[in-house]
Design goal:
InterPro entries: DUF6308. The chain is an all-alpha fold and 215 residues long. It contains eleven helices and no strands. The chain is globular.
């Protein structure tokens, strides 16, 4: 059983990886998640949360609760957009050194602060039912090259346990980023979706593998 993300990906042969992802992006009968990146694509601001972003999240089988949506888009929009602006939109995990990972995605990073505000993790904050999966999908919509989607199926495939998924993905790209980029590009080309981030392509492959295994 693979114990790392890299091992889980390499355990899937290249041809099989394409076969796993192809149905998800089938032009005739795509999964709703195939539209995650496409909804509102012509009006996407990388540094501002929009209604299209929150609706796009619903294509991945979760809902942003009304109270959370109102806060993100109106009542606390200045806070959320300010945090978002401080997370680089032009960098990928492979680009980050260990020091840069700690700066942008580590325990004291703005990204984790945004995560905590979406999750309402503060001692005096009342939860609004945005779980880790939903929070990750909101963040992945805005920073697809940096923030992976949290998913129980992928967690089982990669044997994540209680480990930090951000660091696990960063480690995978640093252990053999060329391999991961090549696998992602191969799949992007096969399904004719050049817009997909490496993280998203590989996530769909691992998720599809997990569903195949009955997870």
């Amino acid at each position: 059983m693979p114990k790392t993300i890299l091992e889980a990906i390499k355990a899937i042969p290249e041809d099989e990886g394409i076969e796993l992802v192809a149905p998800y992006y089938d032009p005739q009968h795509p999964y709703t998640g195939a539209f995650f990146e496409l909804i509102g694509f012509d009006d996407v601001s990388p540094d501002q949360f929009t209604a299209a972003d929150l609706y796009a999240v619903s294509t991945l089988a979760v809902q942003v609760p009304p109270k959370a949506g109102i806060a993100i888009l109106r009542e606390q929009s200045e806070l959320f957009n300010s945090l978002l602006r401080q997370i680089p939109s032009d960098r990928g995990l492979k680009d980050l050194s260990r020091e840069e990972f700690e700066l942008h995605l580590g325990p004291r990073s703005v990204a984790l602060e945004l995560w905590d505000r979406l999750r309402r993790n503060g001692a005096d904050e009342k939860r609004w039912k945005v779980g880790p999966t939903t929070a990750s999908k909101i963040m992945a919509r805005k920073r697809p090259h940096l923030v992976p989607i949290e998913d129980s199926v992928v967690d089982r495939v990669t044997q994540r346990g209680r480990r930090d998924s951000w660091e696990m993905w960063w480690q995978a790209f640093h252990d053999d980023g060329d391999c991961l980029e090549a696998r992602a590009e191969q799949i992007r080309s096969a399904v004719n979706r050049p817009d997909l981030a490496n993280l998203r392509v590989l996530d769909v492959m691992l998720w599809s593998r997990g569903k195949e295994l009955g997870y």
